[in-house]
Structure formats: structure tokens, C-alpha cells
Write a sequence for this structure.
């Protein structure tokens, strides 16, 4: 028999329901799962910040807001919400209409887009519009995500080749990158290619090891010991430690329509992955989720990410799978992971200074 959904105030704040029924023997599983998710989430967050066009620390800000927001309001016990490559790519494509890459306005509008998507999410959830998910065509969504995957490869290829990034559409970037092939930095290509090969080999032969973290740590060590920057290999540079500044970003009122339409695009792409991951975990562990409440939870996660200065987030199938395989029992895993992310921001962020950008690519 499947577990029934909570009623009353617990239906709006599910943590009040599951936390009161929490079993002490679950804690060690949740902590182990949190360590596993943290090992995956830190390098992913930093890499996805690059895709979103913001400095690396903003990936950690986004992760912190996502984990806290979903843990409080989500109904899937095993779902992990955080930065997503696809949502980050959608965010960057929208913000390109409003600001120049690398500017303070870009960072502000990126955070504003996350907040806007969050507010729309929450509105849909409060209005019990979860039934809209029944009309999301799986084929269309998969095609959309596949297309963005190709776009991501094109967008990140300049980092692995060590050439200047070409601005414009994906087609323009592709043509420009191909034209710059004669300028390829061999040391950079070796670093990026080696990282890619190691990741693929570990995925094939050592799937349970946090390969992203292993490769990142190894790359940082090699970069520091061999001084790869002196060979022309671009590195991340300073990653500030400390807490994010919490508040609303400063934007112009004339951008609201673009942000609203962009927020719908973030929801269209993000909620499909979040809902698929939530439904899969609920089916596996024999309980039900509330689709409308899931919208609210994703809304709070995105809003908190934006208030912390981060970018759009969503429920992640890959991170959820990692957490589930590690024995995740409840959203305590998300709360512990958030604490680990906080410690990373305060004390460990500076360690990523010598990380080659080719590895992130």
C-alpha cells in the first residue's frame, strides 16, 4: 500500500510531516548520501556556473538555495534539487537578450530570472496546476533537451581547445570555433582531453566513485604542481570564500516581460526533469507525490537560489540516483548537503583557484 499524502498545514510544508516520523537509524544513511551528493554537486555547481555565464562561486550559491528550498517544501523523499546544465544553458540564452556577458548586469539578471521562475512556479503550485504536467510531451521535451546538449558541447568546446570564445548563436560559435582550430593550445587540449577520457573510463569501470570530484581534485593538484598556467592553460582564478549576499537584484522594470517569458522557459525545461526524477523515486519506494506541491517546492528552490545570487535550478535525475544508491532515506540528506556546501563556501572555495577551465569544459 502506498503512503498517503499529508493534509492540512503539512500539505503545504511537508517537512512537518516526515520530520516528526523520522527514524534515528536512517541518519547514517542520510549522511552517507549527503557526502556522495556533495562530492558530485560541488564540481558540477562550479561547472554549471560557467554555462550560466556567472563566476564559479555562484554555482555554490545556487546549490545552497536549491537544497534548502526543496527540503522544506518537497514531497519526494529522495529527490535532490540543484544546478542543472540544461537550465543553466536556458538561463544564459535568455540573459544574453538583456545584458553583456561578464557584466554585473548579467549576474543580476541571472538571479532575477531564477526568482521570476520561482514565483511563477509557486503561483502554479498554489493554484493546484500540477495537472498541466500531463500535457508535457515526453518526445518534445527529450528533443529539446537533446538539442541543448548539442549546444552545450559547442558552447564549451573553446575551453577544451584553449581558444577564444566566439559570441553569437550556437551556429556562429561552431563556425568561429572551427576557424580558430589552428590556434588550439596543445597543453590545454591535453588537459581537457585527459579529463574527459578519465571521466568516461571511471563511468564505465568505477561507476560508484564520485568521478567528478576525483577528476577535479586531481586536476587542481596537477595544475598546482606543474604550474599549468605558465604553459598557457587557462585556470578558474580566484574563487572568493564567504557567504552570499542575500537580497533582490537590481534590474530595470522594462525587462520584466522578457524575464517572465524566460521564467516559463526555465519551468518548461526544468520541471520535466524534476517531475521525472520525483516520480521515479516515489514509484521505487512506494509512496505518492503531490505534483502541485512539487511546483511550489521547485519555486521556493529557485527563489532562494536567486535571492542568494544564483541561477535557475531543478530536480536532478543524476544527483537523485547517486543519493538513492547511497541509501538516502529523507530530505535530511539535502539539509546535510546544504551544510557541507556552506562549509565549502566558507573554507574550501579558494582551493579551486588553480582548476583548469578545460576540465570544467
Amino acid at each position: 500500500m502506498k503512503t498517503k499524502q499529508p493534509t492540512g498545514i503539512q500539505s503545504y510544508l511537508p517537512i512537518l510531516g516526515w520530520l516528526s516520523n523520522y527514524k534515528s537509524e536512517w541518519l547514517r544513511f542520510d549522511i552517507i548520501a549527503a557526502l556522495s551528493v556533495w562530492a558530485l554537486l560541488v564540481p558540477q555547481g562550479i561547472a554549471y556556473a560557467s554555462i550560466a555565464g556567472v563566476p564559479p562561486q555562484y554555482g555554490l550559491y545556487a546549490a545552497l538555495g536549491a537544497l534548502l528550498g526543496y527540503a522544506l517544501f518537497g514531497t519526494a523523499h529522495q529527490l535532490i534539487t540543484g544546478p542543472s546544465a540544461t537550465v543553466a544553458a536556458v538561463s544564459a540564452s535568455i540573459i544574453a537578450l538583456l545584458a553583456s556577458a561578464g557584466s554585473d548586469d548579467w549576474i543580476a539578471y541571472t538571479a532575477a530570472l531564477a526568482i521570476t521562475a520561482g514565483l511563477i512556479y509557486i503561483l502554479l503550485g498554489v493554484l493546484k496546476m500540477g495537472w498541466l504536467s500531463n500535457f508535457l510531451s515526453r518526445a518534445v521535451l527529450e528533443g529539446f533537451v537533446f538539442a541543448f546538449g548539442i549546444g552545450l558541447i559547442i558552447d564549451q568546446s573553446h575551453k577544451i581547445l584553449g581558444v577564444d570564445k566566439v559570441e553569437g548563436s550556437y551556429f556562429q560559435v561552431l563556425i568561429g570555433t572551427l576557424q580558430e582550430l589552428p590556434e588550439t593550445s596543445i597543453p590545454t587540449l591535453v588537459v581537457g582531453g585527459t579529463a574527459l577520457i578519465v571521466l568516461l573510463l571511471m563511468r564505465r569501470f568505477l561507476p560508484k566513485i564520485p568521478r567528478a570530484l576525483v577528476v577535479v581534485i586531481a586536476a587542481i593538484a596537477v595544475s598546482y604542481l606543474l604550474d599549468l598556467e605558465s604553459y598557457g592553460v587557462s585556470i578558474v582564478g580566484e574563487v572568493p570564500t564567504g557567504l552570499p549576499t542575500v537580497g533582490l537584484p537590481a534590474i530595470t522594470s522594462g525587462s520584466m516581460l522578457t524575464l517572465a517569458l524566460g521564467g516559463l522557459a526555465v519551468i518548461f525545461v526544468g520541471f520535466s526533469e524534476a517531475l521525472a526524477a520525483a516520480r521515479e523515486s516515489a514509484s521505487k519506494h512506494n509512496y505518492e507525490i503531490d505534483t502541485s506541491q512539487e511546483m511550489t517546492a521547485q519555486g521556493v528552490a529557485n527563489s532562494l537560489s536567486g535571492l542568494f545570487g544564483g541561477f535557475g535550478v531543478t530536480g536532478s535525475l543524476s544527483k537523485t540516483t547517486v543519493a538513492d544508491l547511497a541509501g538516502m532515506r529523507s530530505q535530511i540528506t539535502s539539509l546535510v548537503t546544504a551544510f557541507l556546501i556552506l562549509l565549502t563556501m566558507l573554507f574550501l572555495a579558494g582551493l579551486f583557484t588553480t582548476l583548469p577551465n578545460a576540465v570544467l569544459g
